[in-house]
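A common beginner's mistake is to predict each chain separately and then try to dock the pieces by hand. The better habit, illustrated here, is to supply every component at once so that their relative placement is modeled jointly.
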Amino acid sequence: MTIDNLKSPDLAAPGLTAASRPATALSPDASEVLRLDDLHISVHDGAALAVRGVSLSIRAGEVVGLVGESGSGKTLTCRAALGVLPAGVAVEQGSLSFAGHDLTTLSRRGWESLHGNHIGAVFQDPASYLNPSITVGNQLAEVLRVKLGLSRRAARQRSIELFTSVGLHHPEQVFHQIPAELSGGMLQRVMIAIAICCDPQLLVADEATTALDVTIQAEVIELLRQLREQRGLAVLFVSHDLAVISELCDRVVVFYAGEVVESGPAEEIIERPRHPYTQALLRVASVGDFRRRELQVIGGQPPQVGAEITGCRFAERCPAATAKCRAGDIPPVSVGAQHQVRCVRVHEPQVAGELAAR
Amino acid sequence: MSAAAPAAAQPATPLLAVESLDVVLGRGWRATRVLRGVDLAIEPGEIVGLVGETGSGKTTLARTVLGLVSPAGGRVVFEGTPVSALRGGALRAERRRGHLQLVFQDPLRSLDPDMTVIDIVAEGIRLQGETDRSVIRQRVLGALEKVGLDASVLPRTPGQISGGQRQRVSIARALATEPRLLICDEPVSALDASNRNYILRLLSQLRTALGLSIVIISHDLSSLAGIADRVAVLYRGRIVEDGPVDQVFAAPRHPYTALLMASAPSVRHDRELSPQQVTRTVAEAVALPADLLDSFEDPDACVFATRCAFAAAPCAAQPPLVPAGERHRVACHRHAEWMTLARARTADGRTTEGQLS
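With all components supplied together, the output reads:
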C-alpha cells in the first residue's frame, strides 16, 4: 500500500460530495468508508490490552455511534481510526481500512494526506484545539491553503461560505474574531467547519457535544444531521450518553471494557436492548423523562484496563451471570439483521425476566 | 427533623433568602450586570435545582451566596443573618462555622493534587478550631462514610482515585464541617451516566439523613427531575421561572423552560415541542419591524425577547415574576398564551394557522 494509491483521482478530487464520487474499485462494499477488523490496541507500551477485537464498518452517509463508560476503549478506537494514537499506545493486531485502502501500516505522511482531505475530526473541548491568538477565520483559511492549495483570497471566500454552511451568523465578522470572543457552541461550529472544509468522506466526533449546553447540543446534533444529508458525510460519533447517541445515529456500537458487547440498528437497540450492559446503560441514560423517578445506577465498577478475565467481561456486574458466563470466550451472536450481541444467555427467555425483576 | 417532606410545613423564615440581588462583575466599561433582581428562598431540608445555560449567572449566584462575590444591590440572608453585609472579623467567623458549603464542578481541578484525601477533608475541620488529631480523624472518617468511602482512600491524592470517587471526596470535604446548606455547582457534568445518577442519589440520601438543604446547579433537567423539590430557571441573570419541579416540567410557563426541555436529549423522541417551535427563526426575525427588533436588544427588555418566537411590543420591558400556580412564578408577558401559539407552529418553526401577533 503506497501513498500513490491513496491519491487515486477518485479519492482526491476536491469539491465532489461523497455521494457523487465514483465508487472505488478496490472496496468490497462500494459505499463502505471505514472498516475495522478484529482491532486490538495495547497501552502502556504493550503491557495491557485496552481494545480487544473490535470490528465495525461505516458506509457513506451513515452515522455510527460508539457508546460506553469512561475507559471502555471507544476513544482509543476512534483515535486509531484517525491514526493519532498517543505515545505508548499501538495497534497490536487486526486491520483498519478506509474506502478499501489498508491503513494498518500507513506512514505518517500517508496519514497526513488522509487527514482533512478524507477524514475530519471534532473533539470535546473546541477551545483547546484552536490557537487562542489567531482569528478563527485565518485558522480555517490556513487549512484550505495548505490542503487544497487555494489562494489567500479564495481561501477567505471559501471560509466565509463554510462558516455560513455551519450556521454561524455574521460569518464575515466571525472570520476576524479570536476564539476567546466566541461562545462554546460557536467554537464547536468553527471546529466542524475546519473538519469538513476539504469535503472529507468521514467525520469523527469524539464527545463533540458533551461539554455544551443542552440547547447548543441540540443545535450541533441538528447540524451534523444536515451535513450527513447534504454531503453524504459518514460520521463516527462517540458519546457516553445513549440518549445523545439515539438522537443522531443509525447504528450503535456498545463498548464495555475494551470489547464490543452489542451492535446493531439504533432503533432496535433502544427499543429492545439484548445485552444486560446495554439494558443497564439505557436505564441510567437521560431518558428525557421529566417525572420524578428512582435514579438507577450500574452496581460495581468496570474492570481495570487490560484486566485478563475469562469469559464475559461484564459478568461481575451482571445480575443474570451464571457459571456458563465465566467458562470461556464468548463470541458475538447474531440476533437480527446486523444486530450482534456478545452474551451466552441471549437466547434464554428467562434472562429478561431476571433483569426486569431487579 | 422532618426533612423528607419539605413541602408539608412552611417555616416562617427560610434557611437562605436571596433578596433582589444585583451583581455587577468588572468595572468601568467592562462592567457587566451578571445578576438582576434575583429573589430566591431555600427552605430547610429542601433540594432546589438551579438551571440555565452558560453565562446565565448560576455560578455567580452560588459564589455570591457564599460571600466570594459582593453584591451591588440586594442581600443574602442565611439563618436570619444578613451575611452579604458582614465584613472583616464577623465575615471570617461566619465562614469558619462552615454552615454553608460549596461542591465544585470538576474535582480534578478543585481539589489540590498534592494533598491527600485526609488533609483535604480535614482542612475545614481544622479551620473550625479543632486541634485533637484523633477527633479530626474520626470526623474525616465519618464524613467519608456518609459518601460511601472507607479509610483506604485516606492516604491517596486526587490523582490516584477514580472520577466518581473524587466527586465523593469533594462532597465529603463539604460535609465535614456539618453544613446546613450545600451548594453543588454542576456536581455531575464531568461524570458518566451511571456515576452521575450515583452522586445525585447520594445527595438525595444525605438530605434525608442529615436534614440538609441542597442547591444543585445543573443544565441536565432530566436528572434534576429525579431528585429536586423545586427548580429555578435562570436566563441572562434573571430568574424567568421557578416552582415545584413536577409542575414546572409538566407544564412549563416560560418559553425558555420549554426550550430547555425540548433540547434535552431523549431516547424516546416523544417531545411535545421542538426547539424550533419556541425560538424565532431567521426568516421571522427578518420579517419583524426593525424598531421592534431593536427594542428587544434594550437592557430593560425581557431577557429572552431576542430569541423568543412570541416576543411582541410589550416584551420591550422586562416582565416581573408573577404567580402562575401554587409556589410557581413566571416572568413572561405572554405566559398565558404562548403555548397555544407554539402548538400552532410546525416542528421546524413555521406558523401554520394565522400570523404571529
